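ugh ok fine here u go
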Amino acid sequence: MAAYTTIDDPSAYFQSLRYTGNGASGGGTGGTRDLTFTGNSNMKPDMAIHIAEDHNQQKMITDSSRSWASGNHELSWSITNVEGDTNAINTGAYGWIGDGLTNGIQANAGSGGDGYANRNNEPFYVACWKANAGTVSNNTDGDLTSSVQVNSTAGFSIITYTGIDPIEPLDIGHGLGEVPDVFIIKNRDRVANWGMYHKGLDSPAQNRNLKLNLTSAQAAESSFWRNEAPTSTILKTGEQASVNVAGEDFIAYAWVERQGFSKYGRYVGNGNSDGPGPFVYTGFRPQTIIIKRINSAQSWIWHDSKWGTKNASGSTKGNIGNLQSAAMVMESSTNVLDDYGDIDLLSNGFKLRSDAAATNAGNSTYIYMAWAEHPFVTSTGIPTTAV
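structure:
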């Protein structure tokens, strides 16, 4: 049997964890709390997305290309605010998720020990990717010099750049050496929408855009990507303040598929809530899935095996210490876990077991991003055990 993946242990490049805040520092230094990953490999992450599971709080993004060391480098994927202003306040006083461990991540206790990342008795979730251990290099492939840190094995790049005058289409070097399947860009210095390119958008995908901070459907917006597809070296942007303003700083994240580790695609819903619901083949058992309906306004949906999975018999598993009545999801438009989006995680993909409009409406199109918990077939050609 031919080898299916070159990444036998996905936890070396992607991990997620759940924890309950304790409202205090401890176990770390400088007012931080240490959180340890539980995967097979130790992992020091370079990007983190942080979600509060049951209270009103922005969904925060931090990365090592900017700085883990202070709260004023946070962005939120659910709003348009400038860097460090994730709730109309400077979150440096309210907690952050950042670097500091050889295996895990640190949560700042924040002002009074009850900050965003460690509020007492509140559940939190964080998903993390490994890039290049915070080491960046200059990239001159585009119209300006971008700063990139790339993990070619996992197909992930973090790109920062400063806009140039005038506001015009830009070529931006990404460093992957392959055509990215997905990338997102945010202006760090002004209130502006997140732009997202995904190869699964309706053709031509390079003339379509999704806004990470909105629930709106895909839109034909050449001002974002100027109707030119990305290349193996370049992200193509348009004339838009969200992607280029002279002297302003930007962040971009780009992904390319890795067989057995990551998959970025699309599927069509059928509106069925039982066995006939669509099955999406990924080639691995997913750890984390992000889903967005693109032909209608619906929330972005985030699901993780740690929130549970519901199989055909209705049994569930997952969650910290207790079972759930159904698989849980996080919506971009709410601040609590929701139990309507039943998703069955299989050894080689996922199956929708709900007719929820955000995940499986009839004749509706969805894009997804998925990262592996286990590959379906290892690099030595051995199928993994079904879970």
